Amino acid sequence: MEKIRVVVSGAAGRMGQRVITLAAEEPDLAIVGALEAPNHPKLGQDAGVVAGREPLGVPLSAEFQGKADVLIDFSHVSGFDSVVRTCRNNRLALVFATTGITPEQERALVELAEFVPVIRSPNMSLAVNVAMKLCQMAAEALKDKDADVEIIERHHRFKEDAPSGTALQFGNLISQIMGQIVHRHGRQGRPGRRPHEEIGYHAVRVGDNPGEHTIIFGLLGETLEITVRATNRDAYAKGALAAARFVVKQPPGLYGMRDVLGL
Ligand SMILES: NC(=O)C1=CN([C@@H]2O[C@H](COP(=O)(O)OP(=O)(O)OC[C@H]3O[C@@H](n4cnc5c(N)ncnc54)[C@H](OP(=O)(O)O)[C@@H]3O)[C@@H](O)[C@H]2O)C=CC1
Ligand SMILES: O=C(O)C1=N[C@H](C(=O)O)C[C@H](O)C1
C-alpha cells in the first residue's frame, strides 16, 4: 500500500502535535514534513519528540523540501503566504484549518484551488459539521417566525482570533437562509431594542476550553438552542486526517468538510 505523504504546518502547536501523534498511528499515512515559523525555537528538533512520542526522523523546519501529497495547516495567519507557496510549488493538496484569515487571503485560497485540491474549513469536527446542518434546518423552519439568532462561543485563553471561525460560519450559513444583514459583535452601552435583522456574536475566553458553540434561536415564549462541545482536540485532528485522505483523490477545486463527511 502506498502511504499518503503528509506535511504538517504549525507542527509544534496544540493542533499540530495532535495531528502528528494521531497520523503516526495510521498505517496509510506517513509524516514527511513538519513546518514551523522561521524563528521558532524548536526548529531542527524531531517532530515526533516535540509532539510527545517516539522520534519520527522528521525535523521541524521552516521550508518543505522533498516529495509529499498533502499539507495540513493548523498554524497562524502570518504563515499563510508560505503555505500557499509551498502547495503551489510542490503541487500539494491542502487541508486548510487555520482561522482568522483576511478576505484577501480567502481569495488567494480560491486561486490556489485552480491548481491543487483544497479543503478549507474553520472546523474539522464531525459533531460541529452535523450541528451546522441542524442549524440550517432550524433556520429554514424559523425564517419567517421572528426568531432572534445569537451565537456564543467559548475557547481557551490562548486563542488569538474572535469570534471563532466556526461561529462566523454558523452565522453565515444561517443568514444566507434567514436574511439577517447585520453581524453584531457584543453589545454595550444603550444599543436599544434588538433589531430583527441582526445576528449577535459573543466570544468567551476561559482557561483551556478546546471549543464550544451555542446557537440560540429565540422566539417569544420559547427558545431553541443547539450546543456542540469539544472535550479535547482529537475530533479536529481526526477530521483533518479524514480530509487529507479525501482531498488527495480529488481534482483541483475548493472543498469543505461536508464533502468529506457526505453531509
Ligand atoms: N479548523 C479546525 O478544526 C480548527 C482550527 N484551529 C485553528 O488552527 C490554528 C492553530 O491553532 P492551535 O494549534 O491551537 O494554535 P497554536 O498557537 O498552538 O499553534 C500554531 C503553531 O503554528 C506556529 N506558527 C506561527 N507562525 C507560523 C508560520 N509562519 N509557519 C508555520 N507555523 C507557524 C506557531 O508557532 P509559535 O508558537 O512560534 O507562534 C505554533 O507552533 C488557529 O487558527 C485555530 O483557530 C484550531 C482547532 C481546530
Ligand atoms: O482556536 C481553536 O482552538 C479553535 N479554533 C477554530 C475556530 O476558530 O473556529 C475551531 C475550534 O473551535 C477550535
TrEMBL record:
Catalytic activity from the UniProt record: (S)-2,3,4,5-tetrahydrodipicolinate + NADP(+) + H2O = (2S,4S)-4-hydroxy-2,3,4,5-tetrahydrodipicolinate + NADPH + H(+); (S)-2,3,4,5-tetrahydrodipicolinate + NAD(+) + H2O = (2S,4S)-4-hydroxy-2,3,4,5-tetrahydrodipicolinate + NADH + H(+)
Broad class of enzyme this protein falls into: oxidoreductase
GO MF annotation terms: 4-hydroxy-tetrahydrodipicolinate reductase; NAD binding; NADP binding; oxidoreductase activity, acting on CH or CH2 groups, NAD or NADP as acceptor
Pfam families: DapB_C, DapB_N
EC number per UniProt: 1.17.1.8
Pathway: Amino-acid biosynthesis; L-lysine biosynthesis via DAP pathway; (S)-tetrahydrodipicolinate from L-aspartate: step 4/4
Domain Dihydrodipicolinate reductase N-terminal: 4-124
Residues engaged in binding (S)-2,3,4,5-tetrahydrodipicolinate: 156, 165-166
Record-annotated active site: 155, 159
Family per record: Belongs to the DapB family.
Protein name, per record: 4-hydroxy-tetrahydrodipicolinate reductase
Organism of this sequence: Thermogutta terrifontis
Gene assigned in the entry: dapB
